[in-house]
């Protein structure tokens, strides 16, 4: 492939995918959630695909930036951030208010974070296309894999059996609203996918109930590393109480309390490691959090950090500062799972099984969705990401987006359909 191979077409396609009624501190997942699918096509007819958030602001930036890639060299990735940021500056981004919102439960919402998430989809698509042009897998383009399988953890959620209205998407997982329900869900995850570690999304019920669920999981799976993540819902004192009850049971507590300062106060008084995907989610948040030793484990996420190479950079920063690395996940499809798996395969010191929402999704836009064996996804050596876009499925899910009115993830609004008085909580909740 000549270095001058150029991009001939870029397609940015919003879709709505079905999502089960998973509970978190902000509310409950809506029946449908938006994603953005990016495809680049080279002048040689090779295609590359990427995936990111589909909420209005991300989509607006992606749609503004997409056409600018046409005519650019396929190998030009280093200026993506500057170019996407410039595109973002030209459009109206309506909802930047530096508050925590549901579409990611990712700490303060800033323009830089939006830009990173958009960059990630284009970077992955460019790497995928480059892989097809060269015959190399994405992990090789990132320096090569150091493992043949990437381990994921079973991501447990409190959940309702069904969304409230007839005709909304259904699955057969049933409700999980107490420790027995959580253990049954974990058992099904273990039987079906072989997961050997579990994360419970907390913040849905009082901490004592969630601690009881983690103890029940420990009893049922004594060797499994366990995590509990209330997305910052607890006060410092509550976090310390929970930490004391879960020492020796959990491998880490994820964002027990909100913000670097409070996390540091908890970290100073427990030996249980604290992990975050809320207070260290962009480079400018690193110095203060590391100086205060507020976190011991950083959850990478290539959507947050601006792509696969940025994730490798984050790994180097964590290594330098003696921090461990794990991986966060939001609702995502197989394109992102492929990207997560390729980058995870290249990071020597990925210390924990990665999170993934993928087992909760019943739809996808790739022709052969991944399978989990022993909780792991095989690292493919096929060119690019090693996946193929399912164009019929993409068209169907895009049609749903065109016909529907969901444009943003809003877990509080979804909760209000069942509990009209529900408000997004003020923190700490407990
Ligand atoms: O903190 C986390 O792990 C997440 O925010 C992951 C997801 O966003 C999860 O909380 C969700 O979708 O409800
Ligand atoms: Mg988290």
Give a summary of the structure in a few sentences.
The protein folds into two domains: 7-139 and 391-403, Enolase-like, N-terminal domain (Enolase-like, domain 1), CATH 3.30.390; 144-378, TIM Barrel (Alpha-Beta Barrel), CATH 3.20.20. Helix content is 35%, strand content 15%. The chain has 14 helices and 14 strands.
Keywords:
about 425 residues; alpha/beta; Enolase-like, domain 1; TIM Barrel; 2 domains; seven-stranded parallel sheet; three-stranded antiparallel sheet; globular; binds magnesium ion; EC 4.2.1.40; glucarate dehydratase; Enolase_C-like; Mandelate_racemase_C
What features would you describe in this structure?
By secondary structure, the protein is an alpha/beta fold. It contains 14 helices and 14 strands. The chain has a seven-stranded parallel β-sheet. Strands 1-4-5 form a three-stranded antiparallel β-sheet, with helices on both faces. 35% of the residues lie in helices and 15% in strands. α2 (80-90) packs across α3, α5 packs across α6 (207-220) and α6 packs parallel to α7. The protein starts with 6 loop residues before the first strand and ends in a 14-residue tail after the last helix. Magnesium ion (MG) is lined by residues 229, 231, 254-255, 277, 328.
């Amino acid at each position: 492939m000549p270095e001058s191979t150029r991009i001939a077409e870029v397609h940015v396609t919003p879709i709505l995918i079905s999502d089960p009624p998973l509970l978190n501190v902000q509310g409950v997942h809506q029946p449908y959630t938006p994603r953005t699918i990016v495809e680049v096509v080279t002048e040689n007819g090779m295609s590359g695909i990427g995936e990111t958030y589909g909420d209005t602001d991300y989509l607006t930036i992606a749609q503004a930036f997409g056409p600018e890639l046409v005519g650019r060299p396929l190998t030009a990735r280093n200026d993506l951030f500057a170019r996407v940021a410039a595109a973002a500056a030209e459009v109206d981004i309506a909802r930047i208010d530096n508050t925590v919102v549901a579409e990611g439960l990712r700490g303060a919402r800033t323009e830089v974070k939006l830009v990173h998430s958009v960059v990630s989809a284009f970077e992955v698509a460019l790497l995928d296309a480059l892989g097809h042009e060269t015959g190399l897998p994405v992990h090789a383009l990132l320096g090569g894999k150091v493992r043949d399988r990437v381990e994921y953890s079973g991501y447990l959620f409190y959940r309702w059996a069904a969304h409230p209205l007839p005709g909304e998407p259904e699955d057969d997982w049933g409700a999980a609203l107490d420790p027995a329900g959580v253990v049954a869900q974990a058992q099904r995850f273990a039987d079906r996918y072989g997961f050997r570690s579990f994360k419970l999304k907390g913040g849905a019920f009082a901490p004592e109930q969630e601690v009881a669920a983690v103890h029940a999981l420990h009893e049922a799976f004594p060797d499994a590393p366990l995590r509990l993540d209330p997305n910052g819902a607890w006060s410092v004192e509550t976090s310390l109480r929970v930490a004391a009850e879960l020492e020796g049971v959990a491998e880490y507590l994820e964002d027990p309390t909100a913000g670097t300062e409070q996390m540091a106060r908890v970290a100073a008084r427990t030996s249980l490691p604290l992990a975050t995907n809320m207070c260290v989610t962009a480079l400018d948040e690193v110095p203060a959090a590391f100086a205060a030793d507020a976190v011991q484990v950083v959850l990478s996420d290539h959507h947050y950090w601006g792509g696969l190479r940025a994730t490798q950079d984050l790994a180097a920063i964590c290594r330098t500062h003696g921090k461990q690395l794990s991986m966060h996940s939001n609702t995502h499809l197989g394109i992102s799972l492929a990207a997560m798996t390729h980058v995870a395969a290249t990071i020597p010191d990925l210390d924990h099984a990665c999170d993934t929402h993928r087992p909760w999704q019943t739809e996808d836009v790739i022709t052969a969705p991944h399978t989990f064996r022993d909780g792991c996804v095989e690292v493919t050596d096929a060119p690019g990401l090693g996946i193929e876009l399912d164009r019929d499925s993409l068209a169907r899910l895009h049609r749903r987006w065109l016909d529907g009115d969901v444009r943003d993830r809003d877990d509080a609004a979804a909760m209000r359909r069942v509990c009209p008085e529900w408000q997004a909580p003020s923190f700490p909740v407990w």
